[in-house]
Design brief:
The protein has helices spanning about 20, 35-45; strands at about 5-10, 45-55, 60-65. By secondary structure, the protein is of the alpha+beta class. It has a three-stranded antiparallel sheet, covered by helices on one side. Strand 2 and strand 3 (about 60-65) form a beta hairpin. The model has no long low-confidence stretch (mean pLDDT about 75).
């Protein structure tokens, strides 16, 4: 049975549109800007398990990978 190690990180929100927030629209535009940072973890062997908006903190991402 494999053993796992876990990693929880906050990725800062790269772009927040204040005008959209005033209209009640989704503030987190351009979520694709997170891709590069997430791919850095993937290249290190981490598998994304959870991706969740966390207010002004940005995104909380939970990863796992097999323990060696």
């Amino acid at each position: 049975m494999p053993k796992w190690e876990y990693l929880v990180v906050y990725v800062q929100a790269p772009s927040i549109n204040a005008a959209a927030a005033d209209m009640g629209a989704e503030q987190h535009l351009r979520a694709d800007k997170y891709t590069e940072q997430l791919n850095q973890y993937a290249n290190a062997g981490w598998e994304l398990m959870q991706f969740e908006w966390d207010g002004e903190k940005g995104v909380r991402a939970v990863f796992k990978r097999p323990r060696e």
